[in-house]
Write a structure and sequence with these properties.
By secondary structure, the protein is an alpha+beta fold. Helix content is about 20%, strand content about 35%.
């Protein structure tokens, strides 16, 4: 897996923006990525020092549309803690 395939997109929610004030950033990551790979990807893409990575898997919900049953895709998220004093500019102009 290439380093640029690991980070899919940043997660921008009310909770994740509150975490950014404490130096924690949330990313949607590749389902097979590990903590070490995520740490290397963030450090190389954003030129910051990562202190810790926490990973969570979110299982997709099952929905029924009449007789058909569908399942939303599973998601893997990573909460990356940066060294104090460092930050990432996720959205331009903010």
């Amino acid at each position: 897996m290439h380093i640029y395939e690991i980070l899919i997109q940043p997660v921008i929610t009310e909770k994740s923006t509150t975490l950014q004030e404490r130096g924690k950033y949330v990313f949607k990551v590749h389902p097979k990525a590990g903590k070490v790979q995520i740490k290397e990807a963030v450090e190389k893409n954003f030129n910051v020092t990562v202190e810790g990575v926490n990973i969570t898997k979110i299982h997709g919900k099952r929905k029924r549309y009449g007789p058909r049953a569908k399942k939303k895709p599973d998601i893997k998220k990573a909460v990356v803690t940066l060294k104090s004093g460092e930050s990432i500019q996720i959205v331009e102009g903010i």
